[in-house]
Amino acid sequence: MDYKKLSLGLGLFSIALGAAELFGSRRITRALNAEGHEGVVKGFGGREVVAGAGLLQSPAHSARVWNRVAGDAMDLGALALAARGAPRNKAVWGAIAFVVGATVLDVIVARGLDRTTGKTAPL
Questions:
Q1: Residue 121 has pLDDT above 70, yes or no
Q2: Are 22 and 46 contacting, i.e. CB atoms less than 8 angstroms apart?
Q3: Averaged pLDDT score across all residues of the chain
Q4: How many angstroms separate the Cα of 98 from the Cα of each of 1, 44, 76, 79, 117?
Q5: What is the DSSP string of 70-99?
Q6: pLDDT in tens, 49-80
Q7: Cα distance between residue 76 and residue 16, in whole Å
Q8: What is the pTM of this model?
């Protein structure tokens, strides 16, 4: 498996997701029953754009993918709060499933890059 190419794909995905969060924060917060938290969504969007740019600049650098994993954990924490406030909101649960899937892919790519570069995962 070519983890460097997967990392490049994650970089493009991050930029697209970040742009959606930056420009669609009102719509996202409305769907998640989290109106008034557009700034949080925009902050997460900025983080995604920066992460994506870093991966495009250096796709074989596993620490940049591990940073995405840390961002995924932040996203899941925020979504857990949204689920607590609106436990029957299908959009919240869909977003959680989406982030879990992205996290799994991020971990696979980060570990693959660690193995191919001879580095170990961070503690």
A1: no
A2: yes
A3: 93
A4: 23, 15, 10, 11, 28
A5: HHHHHHHHHHHHHHHH-TT-HHHHHHHHHH
A6: 999 999 999 988 999 999 999 999 999 999 99
A7: 19
A8: 0.89
